[in-house]
Amino acid sequence: MHAIRLKATEMSRALRRSLEAGIWKEADRSIIFHDLDFLEKRVRHIQNLFPGSFLHAVAAKANPLPRLLERLRRWDVGSEAATMTEARLAEMSGYPSRHIVFDSPAKTSDDLRYALRAGWHLNADNPGELERIDSLLKEIASESVIGLRVNPRVGMGTIAATSVAGDYSKFGLPLDECAESIKQAYARYPWLTAIHVHVGSQGCSLNQLEKGVRTTLDFALMVNETIRRPNGLPPISHFDMGGGMPAAYLPKEPSFTIDDYAQRLRDSCPELFDGRFRVITEFGRFVHANAGFTASRVEYVKSYAGTRTAVIHVGADLLMRRCYMPDQWYHHISVCDAEGRLKETGAMEQHTIAGPLCFNGDLIAKDISLPRVEEGDYVLIHDTGAYTLSMWSRHTSRLIPAVWGYSEKGGFEQLKKGETVEDVYRFWR
Ligand SMILES: Cc1ncc(COP(=O)(O)O)c(C=O)c1O
User: Does 200 sit in the ligand 1 pocket, CB within 6 Å?
Assistant: First the structure.
């Protein structure tokens, strides 16, 4: 059984080692860390749960750092790209074309031409895109596997903004309402050989994820039974089941694990496991979130209104969702002293952890109970490996912190340099 998340003691140990190793320079006020052993174990664990007919294309939007993309590629996973840039990052990181899954809903004709020439796996979002692909394929001999995104309408998860299988979704075509035209697309386009579904990211239940996959699978099987290609083969050979496996953020145990999800699919969707389909997954958050944490120095502590406000050096720039939608997103907080030792004992006091940005909602935690936080301490923000740096906000021109990976064997390895003022000047010019 693979660990669910990094423990505070493990993070504090890594922080201590990083301080001893001298990786904190004077300019470093925060550092984002990734436990590379944990990340590898998580990837291997996912790979072991599913048969070899599955390709795990990790969603680059969760974490697009090339040094991590390269590492994932070496572990034989693919890369799911939400944009042309992400697909190019995967290409530049050495992914074979067939392991790049290009999913943007707004692909231009130039994007499509490039993707078809490169032979990436391509998921179309709508009929207009299918038409464009069809006319491009008249001039391009492509090895791309091409699919269509559908919405199984299995309902919303607990977070509306990241739920995409409700009655309305801006992505794909609803399977019930558009069943006939989707079926016709498989009959009309001989190159359309894949189907794509993604139910949502974080906040979806096991039942919802399973139902989304099962509903889409029923449709694919129906298409394969009723339509035959001139070569006698059924149209759909690739089934992309999307991501959406939730990561653990809250201190309590998550309501289901990846083992539960894999077992549920084995029980209810055996057709995905018998080799008839090449199955693609697009897990992002679950792969990266729990392998990362952020340490930030406490610059000041001030005490009033019944709370000790600790001002640190990341806020809504790194943790946009947490700060703008605090009821829906959560990161656990621990505190270490200036030497990186975990503060575990002593009287607990009310604290508010404030970021450095210029608005009052820039709070990572409000009125939480922590051992006394003091100037020069380090606040550890748990589970920041996914959808944090990749959502970085430039508001107030904050510098992106350095990112370091560490492993038992390899020690510390810089994954990204911290930004300088000159970098930000170039960005704005
Ligand atoms: C099409 C698609 N695939 C995969 C993902 C990754 O989801 P998660 O990181 O929750 O696994 C997303 C997230 O938005 C997505 O839109």
Answer: no
